Amino acid sequence: MEAATLAEILEMLSDCLEALRQEQEALAACEEAVRIRRDLLTPADPATSVALVQALYKITNVLAVSLGRLDDALAAMEEAVELYRRLAEHDPATYSREVAWGLRHLGWCLINVGRHEEGAARCAEAAGILRHLSLSAPEIAEPLLVRAMFDQARALGLLGRPLEGVGALEEAMVIHERVPYEAAMGSLMPDRLALVSELGAQLTALGWFGHALPYVEEAIDILRAHVDRGAQEYRPALKQALSELKRCRRALTGAEN
């Protein structure tokens, strides 16, 4: 059996094992596939690099999503991004978006293991690439650009730099409003609720309660609609938003007095 065929079989086996919730066995199959893909790597053949990246992404998914081992997923994610960087040096039109996607995902992982500074930097780099791509292919680049800026803003808020976070969120909101529904479907773009909730929270953190108020109120309206339709998983967020609304109103009343 050819090595590439064996790697494909192992990757399919990993998918089946993960679906059966046999995560450790799925990880072992992924790791074996990656070892084979590394042996097959040929710099002159981009397809071998892409195949290795896809195998690394499978490991990342099993580690981060199925096993909750985000720290362990970082090494695979960083290797994948570096492979795409090398490809983009020779063929930016084909691979620049893949670099940005990888950087955004790497940033998300770093943010969620508490490495907020590094996470914000990776998301900012991804956003820079996507801004350039959006000039020629907005329908492809802009949904991911909104996601990258949202994650960057979240990291900046966690770093105690809400002013920078607000700037990224406001830009993301403008782009979000012009992305066609068809382009947004199936993308990683955050919805309106996520954006207004985060923007309201960061404006509140700055003490800009008057600016925060309309975003907090909009978040409450969206959350109430979800809860009224029976989506009780939104109730904790609604409770938090109502508390934020009270804080804004108290602050504004105090300022008037």
Structural overview:
The chain has 257 residues and is mainly α. It has three domains: 1-90, Tetratricopeptide repeat domain (Serine Threonine Protein Phosphatase 5, Tetratricopeptide repeat); 97-181, Serine Threonine Protein Phosphatase 5, Tetratricopeptide repeat (Alpha Horseshoe); 191-257, Methane Monooxygenase Hydroxylase, Chain G, domain 1 (Up-down Bundle), CATH 1.20.58. Helix content is 84%, strand content 0%. It has twelve helices and no strands. It has helices at residues 3-19, 23-40, 46-66, 70-90, 92-112, 116-134, 138-158, 162-178, 181-184, 192-205, 209-228, 235-256. α1 packs parallel to α3 (46-66), α6 runs antiparallel to α7 (138-158) and α8 runs antiparallel to α10. The termini are far apart.
The Cα radius of gyration reads 21 Å
Overall 3D form: elongated
Low-pLDDT runs: none
**The number of domains:** 3
The third-level CATH topology of the largest domain is Serine Threonine Protein Phosphatase 5, Tetratricopeptide repeat
Count of extended strands = 0
